[in-house]
Amino acid sequence: MPEMPEVQGLVDFLGTRLPGLTITKVNVGNIAALKTYDPPIDALRGATVTTASRHGKFVDIATIAPTTHTTADAAAGPHLVFHLAKAGWLRWYDTLAPTLIRPGKTPIALRVGFDDGSGFDLTEAGTKKSLAYYAVQDPQDVPGVARLGPDPLDATFTRDAFAALLAGRRTQIKGVLRDQSVIAGVGNAYSDEILHVAKMSPYALAAKLDDAEVERLYAAMTDTLAEAVATASGKPPADLKDAKRRGMRVHGRRGEVCPVCGDTVRSVFFADNSLEYCATCQTGGKVLADRRLSRLLK
Ligand SMILES: [Zn+2]
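Output (structure tokens, whole complex):
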């Protein structure tokens, strides 16, 4: 799943390609992934892209309406907002193929083409479809965007702001970091990495972290994300997934060697997924119980 750094990489890429281009093609491949009906998705056709930006893990392509030709008299056009979810991706084409897509019979959820012949497909592999896209007048009309907590790389997201978010939360820090309404953009992979850098147990209770721990976690989060964004930025979409995988120290590396201490990276079931951690670095050598497994054994 792409998280904030990969989405930022996509946005940076789209930001170098799209502004000034007019949308000429909007082909819906999976109608179930289109979550809005007003304005109609076809309202994007003829609109000219102004910017590409990011809200958490959402990509936001802003436009000016077809009837205006200069930014001075520009009437805001619809925004195309999308979330790639678990198995979604964006495929960029300098020259978009003229072939038609057949709704319901393609991994392509949406195809967008531009007046210079370029374009992209939003694709989703697998059977469990959760990629979503929206045509909206205002990105805040997307419930998932409206709900977002602060962005951890925003200048206003200080150590104190982070401490205030954690205070009173009697839940495990792993879940807090992944909660988009608390902090925007961090998912299962980067929360594993952040906790490993912070040398902190994923099961630590947010409310119980002392000042030094909050400080360490804040630094680990901002450093890890800033580094990953720097790695992702400037890469074409096709390279972003591999770059993410290569950059991981513990996430997805069960059974491999911890790059810090040499212990074996362990995995444990958490919520709807598994997490990876290093017992020596993060839990004082204690192996975390797999709650799902122990429940089954009882
Ligand atoms: Zn370690």
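The radius of gyration is 21 Å.
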